[in-house]
Design goal:
45% of the residues lie in helices and 20% in strands. The chain is built from 4 helices and 5 strands, in the order ααββαβββα. It has a 3-stranded antiparallel β-sheet, covered by helices on one side. Strands 2-4 form a two-stranded antiparallel sheet. The protein starts with 6 loop residues before the first helix and ends with a helix. The mean pLDDT is 90.
Length: 117
């Protein structure tokens, strides 16, 4: 029988699958990767934002290493280039999670956008 898992567990599993802790690019940063950085996630196209729950769950999983700051609210209609989320932390910490975060947000926003259509 299939069991339900929490969103936090899904994120932990996805980060492990993506080998976030062993990211080769991040390792190449060396000491430069330990400097404080801010990254901004922007919309590639117009659509509907969905992902507040994902951001909350990511914050619970990665704290205290990264501060995740939502810029838009759930259900907001977006234009291409709209700022969605700010990530604050070391460059290395941000790089470790960015692919997984972007994948999950892309799925959620894509479903919301298609549903709206």
């Amino acid at each position: 029988m299939f069991g339900l898992i929490s969103l936090e567990e899904l994120i932990r599993n996805a980060l492990a699958e993506d080998r976030a802790a062993d990211d080769v690019t991040t390792a190449l940063l060396g000491v430069e990767g330990e400097t404080s950085q801010t990254a901004v996630v922007v919309a590639r196209g117009a659509g509907i934002f969905s992902g507040e729950g994902i951001l909350t769950a990511f914050a619970a999983v990665v704290q205290p290493g990264i501060r995740i700051v939502p810029v838009v609210r759930e259900g907001v209609r977006l234009q291409a280039g709209a700022e969605l989320v700010r990530l604050e932390g070391t460059g290395a910490d941000i790089l470790r999670i960015e692919r997984t975060l972007l994948n999950l947000l892309s799925i959620a926003c894509g479903v919301a956008t298609e549903t709206d259509r």
